[in-house]
Write a structure and sequence with these properties.
The protein is of the alpha+beta class. It has one domain: 2-Layer Sandwich (60s Ribosomal Protein L30, Chain: A), CATH 3.30.1330.50. Helices cover 29% and strands 31% of the residues. It is built from five helices and seven strands, in the order ββββαααβαβαβ. The strands form two sheets. A five-stranded mixed beta sheet has the order 4-1-7-5-6. Strands 2-3 form a two-stranded antiparallel ribbon. Helix 4 links the parallel strand 5 and strand 6. Helix 1 packs parallel to helix 3 and helix 3 runs parallel beside helix 4. It starts with a strand and ends with a strand. The model has no long low-confidence stretch (mean pLDDT 96).
């Protein structure tokens, strides 16, 4: 068994869609980034890659590569899962926390879990997503950005 952790943060800006966990959320600001800036999926990808000893998303999907401009992060997550599987690992569970002051995310979490479980080839019970605020402190509290943390457990496929 191997554990990985991931962290990501993106700035909130006007004139961008807000996409978290593969869900487009109606909000007056969106996340700035080279891809769709899905902060939750980026943290998950880094956790998975780290657990498998495969580096990080910047190595695999650099923002200097136009191929990844505005790409759907769910497509990148599927590529990460293929890398994990090629390394003979499978996902045991993923636990995450989204940190944002607004919008409130609780009603979107079930769909986020569904998206991520589908992309990872997991049961929904293997994915956990929590959302919290920063109690109006710091860049998150000022609604300047959104952060996400993820931790995962993977194991070799034949280690049952």
């Amino acid at each position: 068994m191997r554990v990985g952790q991931g962290f990501d943060v993106h700035q909130l800006v006007p004139n961008r869609k807000l996409i978290i966990g593969g869900v487009t959320i109606d909000f007056h600001l969106g996340l700035m980034g080279h891809s769709d800036a899905d902060v939750l999926i980026h943290a998950i990808m880094d956790a998975l890659l780290g657990a498998a000893g495969l580096g990080d998303i910047g190595q695999h999907f650099p923002d200097s590569d136009a191929t990844f401009k505005n790409i759907d992060s769910r497509d990148l997550l599927k590529k990460v899962i293929k890398l994990i599987e090629l390394s003979d690992f499978k996902v045991i569970n993923i636990d995450t926390t989204i940190i944002c002051q607004a919008p409130m995310l609780s009603k979107f979490i079930p769909l986020m879990i569904e998206n991520i479980s589908l992309d990872c080839g997991c049961d929904k019970s293997q994915i956990n997503i929590k959302a919290t605020t920063s109690e109006a402190l710091g860049f998150v509290g000022r609604s300047e950005g959104i952060a996400a943390q993820a931790i995962c457990l993977i194991e070799l496929k034949d280690s049952q």
